[in-house]
Amino acid sequence: MNTELPHMDTSRRDAGLVRTVGTWGLAASTIGVVVGATIFVVPAQVAANIGPYAPVAILICAIAVGSVAICFAEGGSRIPSSGGAYGYIEAAFGPLSGYVAGTLLWISDVLASGGIAAALADAMVTLLPQSMKAPAHAVIIIGTIGGIAIVNVGGVTRAMRLISATTLLKLIPLVVFVIAGLGAMHSGNFQPSAGAGNSSGLGRAVILVLFAFMGMETSLCASGEVLRPERTIPRALALAMGSVTLLYIGIQVVAQGILGPSLASSQVPLADAMAHISPALQWLMLAGAAVSMLGFLTSDILASPRILFAFARDGLLPSVLGRVHTRSHTPQVAIICYATLAAVLALTGTFAELAVLSALATAPFYIAGCLATWRLVRRGVSQAGTPLNFRWLGIATTLGVASMVALIAFAERREIIGLFGLMGCSVVVYLAQTQVARVRAATRKRA
Question: What angle separates helix 95-124 from helix 305-313, to the nearest 10 degrees?
Fold first, then answer.
């Protein structure tokens, strides 16, 4: 581990990386992370809380996360560095804040990645004999995560091709769902049920939908490899989040229009809705859920290891994690370590409780990102040409911060305690690490 903890500039942090990711590649990566397996089940959960008013909740959440996305686009256009928002949180508030925010991000990402890999394996072994399920479960997890990691070590261009392919494959069944379902809807299924639309139900529904919208921060972790970032990052985020919003509203409306009151009790709402039209479409939705999980993993294993890489380059983790492959120009050690940890988590459980903490941990990270961007704009910081310069950034910052504070407030007490406990532990680790570095530096000078 490095003995000093410098406030590093991004050019040094990203040295050795190649900027090849364009607008479509970054947008595909963002969609790949955001549109995960959640959308295949969340329509039922939202409908159970507020019935046919669910599209309103989706729109509210789109505005909330869209406000955060605007802040991240502005910040990313000013400091496009590996680690994404970690880079401009660190630049705005200093190394301690950056370390805490980056820790929240990579821990929540690896927990989500492990949980989704486990869920993918669960889905794929359902038809196997009981005696074969356990070994097959392990093989699928190791093979899937290991294979994606190998592609990523081979180069960011290869990784982006894989992401583009899986993103297209996951979107096909969702688009088919909306198009095929439009003609099968019944107007009577949009009548509100008793109790739908009450304030407590709306609050729970908003939390569920916000979880489904989260993930853009992960794709931005590869900002150190984005071509013309001051233009690419804002365009990619606008394209990705706009597309996701329209898709989510379409899915919710179609699911409600086909299933009506039964939507709230469905375990696989998209598949159940398509069963009313064709068994083949039902199977397409089930396969789509598996592909969607795979798509999340391809995007996450590209982006999230860059946080570890950035930490190592900044002296906050062992320097070996900051190495770049001489031929592929990828942070191969960080990728391998991250993938290994995700595989271990997937092999040891489903992490249902940890998944909630994973999503909740994103809220303070979003808050820090919004406030950091606002401060960088006030200070006129820009390291990549002309930045976005969004005119109503103050409004976006206010909406983004307020919505994330509300999300934390909606959580259970034990979840909030766990969140602040994680943040406290990261502060202690950082301070201890800094003290050790200072002692080593002093010892070296005396020697």
Answer: 150
